[in-house]
Design a protein that fits this description.
four-stranded antiparallel beta sheet; 20 strands; 14 helices; Rossmann fold; six-stranded mixed beta sheet; 2 domains; Jelly Rolls; 441 residues; alpha+beta
Length: 441
């Protein structure tokens, strides 16, 4: 422990060059301290055999026994969700009182999802990510990742858990400048005691090859471009084969072409079974993901609500999200019935719903099918009167919908003439199509 402390004190004395990499240094220091009891110092060198390439790492730590680790890869969790945050609150003490960064966040992420976390600066995006990675702790609420209650872990076990289960990709790369690219990639494997020494080098070369940088393996970070440094950072994040990758503005310092190639790489990793959470300001990149989480002033805005009402301001969407009620229906179950008085507006969030009209002979025919992101129930609320059609869950799979009560829906569109005009236009089109069906034309 003392040696590890002296080691990092020495590094910090190097001054300004380490200011930019401080977050990664603390991350590495945590890993180092948790494993010091089973380490002993040595001199480490990684380079091409028979050449002077590579860089001398001042001090590394070698375990008394080398473990051949098996990568984590896909999650083997038995939990309902890979990531599950429940009523998470994060408060920071300030001279003028507590600042609430997160306000009762509920968030679930399943294996294999590619999730973009978007929002304005100061909205709580990074704080939310820090809850998931265990870099910060909630003031209240629970954070479960796989089968681990992250919010209960102390600093030592937290660092070991993070090193094996979460790969973190920083906006400013956070590569150690005195290490070659391959040494940077090998570092997490060494600190977490994963793989043998030979396997570490082989795996690091494999990962650099996967991100297209095998020919730069023995160069220093300063000798490659910004885009290439970010690829090294991705390879490092994959070093211990974690099931989750977390990227905080990974394209923020890259040109548009390099950023696009980075997203393509993320898509390939998702196809291989990784789960990725990416904080971004780039709306175009956010469109490439499988799901978007919008955060505003420490609260999550329902993504389907945001798509249904794109003209509403964030404050209005936050208020509406608080009122949303999630409902589930078995295959074929009726959600609303033709002729009943409207009390809710619905957005489909999972599965397919069928819109049915009743024929004069009493039989019902399917006139439309609505998928995730589409909505129904607005015609009767906007025009008054009873519902003009029956809506049921599709007959093959269960359906989930987000329901907004009539009063909240009416207030929302009353505050936004643009939204009301657009919904009225769509309602008019749907009503006309329904009338045509009734008349048999």
């Amino acid at each position: 422990m003392k040696f590890a402390g002296l080691f990092f004190d020495e590094l910090r004395e190097w001054g300004g060059i380490f200011v930019a990499i401080r977050p990664f240094m603390y991350y590495v220091e945590w890993l180092c301290f948790t494993a010091t009891w089973k380490m002993k110092p040595r001199i480490a060198y990684v380079g091409n055999s028979g050449s002077n390439e590579g860089f001398m790492f001042k001090q590394l730590f070698r375990r008394d026994k080398s473990e051949s680790g098996v990568g984590n890869g896909r999650s083997t969790s038995t939990a309902a969700h890979l990531i599950d945050l429940t009523n998470v609150v994060k408060a920071y003490e300030t001279p003028v009182g507590d600042f609430i960064a997160l306000k009762g966040i509920d968030l679930q992420v399943d294996p294999g999802e590619f999730v973009a976390v978007i929002g304005k600066s100061g909205s709580g995006k990074t704080t939310l990510i820090n809850m998931i990675t265990g870099i910060d702790r909630p003031t209240s609420g629970t954070v479960h990742v796989s089968d681990t209650a992250v919010h209960t872990l102390k600093e030592g076990p937290m660092a070991e858990w993070r090193g094996r289960n979460v790969g973190v990709i920083f906006q400013f790369f956070q590569l150690l400048p005195m290490l070659s690219c391959i040494e940077n990639v090998m570092l997490p494997m060494d600190f977490c005691n994963m793989y043998t020494a030979r396997e570490r080098k082989e795996r690091a070369l494999h990962l650099l090859d996967q991100v297209g940088l095998i020919e730069h393996a023995y160069k220093l970070p300063s000798e490659v471009s910004g885009g290439q440094q970010q690829r090294v950072a991705i390879a490092r994040a994959l070093a211990n084969d974690p099931p989750i990758l977390v990227a905080d503005e990974p394209t923020g310092n890259l040109d548009s072409h390099t950023a696009l190639s980075m997203i393509q790489l993320f898509e390939e990793l998702v196809d291989q079974g990784k789960t990725i959470l990416m904080v971004t300001h780039d709306q175009d990149l956010a469109k490439r993901v499988t799901r978007t989480v919008i955060i505003s002033d420490g609260e999550i805005i329902d993504e389907y609500l945001a798509k249904a009402f794109p003209a509403l301001e964030e404050a209005q969407l936050v208020r509406a999200t608080r009122k949303l009620e999630t409902k589930s229906y078995a295959p074929g179950a009726v959600i609303v019935s033709q002729g009943e008085n409207p009390d809710k507006f619905y957005i489909v969030t999972k599965g397919i719903v069928e819109v049915l009209l009743q024929e004069p002979d009493g039989q019902q025919i399917v006139v439309a099918r609505l998928r995730s992101g589409q909505y129904f129930g607005e015609i009767a609320i906007l025009r008054g009167g009873a519902r003009i059609a029956t809506v049921r869950a599709g007959t093959e799979t269960a359906v989930e919908v987000a329901a907004l009560d009539k009063e909240t829906f009416t207030n929302l569109i009353g505050e936004s003439p643009v939204t009301r005009e657009e919904l009225s236009r769509i309602a008019g089109q749907r009503a006309a199509e329904t009338e045509k069906r009734k008349n048999g034309s």
